[in-house]
Write a structure and sequence with these properties.
Blueprint lengths: L4 E8 L3 E8 L10 H16 L3 E8 L4 E3 L4 H9 L6 H18 L5 E5 L2 E3 L1 H8 L2 E4 L4 E3 L13 H4 L5 H10 L5 H7 L4 E2 L5 H9 L8 H16 L15 H7 L4 H10 L5 H12 L2 H14 L4 H18 L2 H10 L17 H6 L5 H8 L1 H4 L1
Length: about 375
């Protein structure tokens, strides 16, 4: 039976190695299971201490995408079937965010090959890397509003690096960003052709690195990727998101109630904006409130604080919010007709929203014993 994650050591700089992480569950679009997260975290910790590993490369198996997100169905089943009091939910989200934080603060350069679908938990891995590669097939999105969650995996930090109207729009509409827009917005660092992965790795193998000089290693990686980014053979994609900037800025102004009224009356002309409007209006109204509050809070917050609060919010969403119903409707029964707790954004009480940012007794107990859950 094949492993859900594969690890290799590839040559780099003639004397050193690149530690390669390959997500190997293409049937699920490499959705991150608890086992996958734990395996990657352990291997990265080992490679961090290895004096011959000069860089990390993270990729996904299969042509369709790098990673479609976290395997939230496992979280759903732990709550629906096992009634474990949220123990698995806490363990899953807490460990996933630990992995994202580890990559974000990793002392050695990390390259992420983000082809095809890069969604949710996949965005967490991509955005934590130093070098975030996209290709013509890439589609980046945070679709959590569709399952009663909110953009997590550090999105409270990295979405806030964008202009506010873009941050709100991507978080509220599950919009899929193409490679050109991703680079222009800073979500990606390099845009290369889909079929040059092996050539990039060959170039890195043939670089010259005398000693384990991480700054020199970063420079070598940057130079190689720059060469492929400037290729005349690279098909250019037109920016889609930015071509609608004025419309998006107008739609995303004010409170969540203002945004709801604007989106209701909005008549989009393009298919991408039609889909965005539909995703927002059919997504969880409770999640819409949580998304805006979390984004506002996240401005200027240190990364560790972001992950701590996301752990609290994600567990509360899975235990008491729309998460279980959203996952059921979209990923389990697949009837795509979730019965949200509230009919629309205007019906959601602000006191209910505030309660999701407060630790419950069960969450306090889970976090207190978090070390034993890892």
């Amino acid at each position: 039976m094949s492993q859900p994650v594969e690890f290799e050591s590839l040559p780099f700089g003639s004397r050193f190695k690149i530690g390669l992480v390959r997500l190997s569950s293409p049937k699920s679009l490499n959705a991150l299971s608890m086992d996958m997260i734990a395996l990657i975290k352990l291997q990265l910790e080992l490679w961090r201490e290895d004096p011959y590993v000069a860089a990390i490369w993270i990729e996904g198996d299969g042509k369709k995408g790098f990673c479609a997100g976290g395997n939230v169905v496992d979280v759903y089943r732990s709550l629906a079937d096992n009634q474990d009091g949220g123990a698995f939910s806490y363990r899953y989200f807490h460990t996933e965010y630990q992995l994202d934080y580890l990559i974000s603060t990793y002392p050695k350069p990390v390259v992420c090959w983000g082809h095809g679908y890069v969604m949710g938990g996949g965005m967490g891995l991509l955005m934590a890397a130093d070098y975030r590669i996209v290709t013509p097939s890439s589609r980046l999105s945070m679709p959590e509003i569709k399952i009663g969650l909110y953009p997590d995996v550090g999105a409270s930090h990295f979405l806030n690096l964008l202009p506010e109207h873009y941050a709100r729009f991507l978080a509220l509409t599950a919009y899929q960003v193409n490679a050109t827009d991703a680079c222009e917005l800073g979500l990606a660092t390099h845009y290369v052709a889909d079929d040059v992965r092996h050539l990039v790795l060959e170039k890195l193998a043939n670089c010259h690195l005398e000693q384990l000089d991480l700054e020199r290693a970063k420079l070598l990686i940057a130079n190689v990727l720059h060469g492929f980014s400037m290729s005349d053979d690279l098909p250019l994609l037109k920016p889609e998101l930015q071509s609608h900037e004025k419309t998006i800025e107008k739609l995303m102004g004010g409170t969540i109630e203002n945004i709801y009224q604007s989106m209701r009356s909005f008549v989009p002309e393009s298919d991408c904006l039609k889909n965005a409007r539909e995703n927002f209006l059919t997504g969880s109204p409770l999640s819409a409130h949580l998304i805006l509050q979390q984004l506002e809070w996240g401005k200027g917050q240190p990364l560790q604080a972001v992950f701590d609060r996301e752990t609290l919010l994600s567990v509360n969403c899975s235990m008491s919010g729309d998460f279980q119903e959203g996952v059921r409707a979209l990923l389990v029964d697949k009837d795509k007709t979730p019965h949200w707790r509230y009919r629309n954004v205007l019906d959601v009480p602000h006191t209910m929203v505030a309660s999701f940012f407060q630790p419950t007794r069960s969450f306090s107990q889970l976090s207190k014993h978090g070390q034993t859950l890892q």
